[in-house]
Each structure stands twice: as C-alpha cells, then as structure tokens.
Amino acid sequence: MKRITLMLIAVLAYTVSTAQIFPGFFNDFQDGTTQGWSNGGSSPNPPTNVADGGPGGAGDAYLEEISSGTVGPGSRMVVFNTSSDWQGDYSSLIEIAFNARNTSDEDLFIRLAFEGGSDDTSISSTNSVTVPAQSDWAFYSLNVEPAEFTIIGGANSVTEVLADVNEIRILHSDTPSFIGAIVAATLHLDNISTSGLIGFEDKLKTTFQAVPNPAVNSLQLTAQVDMESYVIYNLLGAKVAQGIIEGTQKQIDVSALQSGAYIIEISAGNQSVTQKFLKQ
Ligand SMILES: [Ca+2]
Ligand SMILES: [Ca+2]
Predict the structure, then answer these.
(1) For residue 268, what pLDDT band results from cuts at 50, 70 and 90?
(2) How far apart are CA 6 and CA 250, in angstroms?
(3) Residue 184 CA: which ligand is closest?
(4) pTM here?
(5) Ligand 2 centroid vs 39 CA: distance in angstroms?
(6) Could you tell me the fold of the domain covering 17-195?
C-alpha cells in the first residue's frame, strides 16, 4: 500500500508540475546503493557501490563504473539516472560537480548528457573535463547552463530540455554524445552534486526578517547578506526613522514611534526590500 501510494505521488508529481532541482543536492553513496545510477537492464557490468576508499578515505563509499571496451551492452563508458531525484527543472543550477578517479590507462573525457522536453530531445556538454588516466581522486565540475550544450537529437531547444529533464547521464566521449564512447576503463565517482547561485536580491528578499511583529520597544533585523541601511516610513509615506546597519543583523530602537503600522525598507548592494510591521 505504501509503495502504491508513493508511486501515485510520483505520477502526480510528474504530471502536475515539473520539480525544481535545487542547488545543494548530492549523491554521496553512503547509503550503500548506487542511488539510481545504472547502465540499463542488460549490462554485464552495471555500476556498483564500493564501501571504502572514496575521496574521504576509509568508510567513504563511492560509485564504480566499468566499461568493457568490447561490443554490445557494457562496452561504453556511461552511467545514467532516471530516479525522481534527478528528474525536473535544472534552470536554477549553474554546475554539476563530482569527485572522480580514473584507474585505467585511458584519459576519460567526461560530459553530462540529458534527455527531456516534450520531444525527448537529447543534449550533451559541448566541452568535456578530462579525468586523466591513472589519476587519484580530484574535484571536477561541468556547467549546466544552456549555452554549454549541443543538441544530439530531437526537436526541443536546450533550454526546454533543461527545464524538463527525465534522464541525466555522465559519460566519456571525445565529442558531444548521448551514448558514450566504447572504451575499456574504470571510473570512480562520488559526491555528484548540484550547485547554483541564488542572486543577491533573491537572497536578501528571502532571508530578511524584522521581528518581533508587533514590536514594542525594539525591532531585530536579520538577513543572510550584509545590510547597509534602513528607513522606516509611516503608511502616509513619511520617513519617521533611518539608520545604518553594516552587517547581517541589527537591533533598532522603535520605542519613540507612535502605535500603528509602518514599513521598514532595508537597502543593501543597490537592492532593497520592504516589510510591514506593527508598533504596539
Ligand atoms: Ca561517498
Ligand atoms: Ca558498466
């Protein structure tokens, strides 16, 4: 029953709206699974979870992917993920980063590839990052902004694909590809993570607080960005108080204000945010 409910939720989530993929999501493989990374049904060498020896050393699990370099399933260096964690809208992301190690004799030219959009269009990173042969763990990142991709097949634009991804792939190929290249190699991956930039203005607007509300004698201002100054207006638009903040928090004295409703405007970095508050 639980499983059916989860499946229904998954179906509803897919049909009703496209989930946003947020910065800060990552696969660290510490749960002992491949976290949805696979080769597909008939591969003789699907990715596996290795419990020890990731970039953090003992106890740091990672993903091992082997490609045979021969013919047929398992010959190409490619892992893909169609789990709900990786399906959705990538438009708020800047990069996907990961730790990688290449224990084989071939340099690996790692790219991201996606399938998505209304037409199941496939796209690939135009440029690769090189994980050198016989290299130890290192940190790599690939940009996921639309300008960084080449369309492999399908009628959607890159932007449409990145707004509605149904499959992500990490692959080796010396040219843009959705299927990866045939190579005999072993690639280790860990901490596959999303990163993005929330704009200063968004961060100011989403984190600014003036409490308590209603205020009695003082108002505590906090934000996760440095604020520069404040102005308090009454509801007629007249300026009744102002001051300098210089930091992420400031307690201001409002005891002299008459009881009533006010607007406080915070300025920072050429941006501003306003909030209504009541003085008791
Ligand atoms: Ca790990
Ligand atoms: Ca494989």
Answers:
(1) confident
(2) 45
(3) 2
(4) 0.68
(5) 6
(6) Jelly Rolls (2.60.120)
